[in-house]
């Protein structure tokens, strides 16, 4: 298995995502929710809390309720902004 360089690792959007947007879950293999890694979802709801104020990174205050695009099932857990990367729309 080849090592990914930092340039190969997808990055979260610099701004918050919106309901209806498409994202892909991107977690590390040691993350407890790694079974969702690579799943493409639609954002169902956007939640906010005070974490962004504490960390001084506005996007840290966002988490998202997601629906799997393949199964149409809403995921049982929400994901933080840093665990999601934008999905480029098909052209």
TrEMBL record:
* InterPro entries, alphabetized: DUF8139 (IPR058452)
Could you list this entry's UniProt keywords, alphabetically sorted.
Answer: Plasmid
Top-level taxon of the source organism = Archaea
Q: Where is the DUF8139 domain?
A: 15-88
Q: Name one Pfam family in it.
A: DUF8139
Q: Where is this region: Disordered?
A: 1-29
Tell me the protein's name: DUF8139 domain-containing protein
What broad taxonomic lineage does this protein's source fall under? Archaea, Methanobacteriati, Methanobacteriota, Stenosarchaea group, Halobacteria
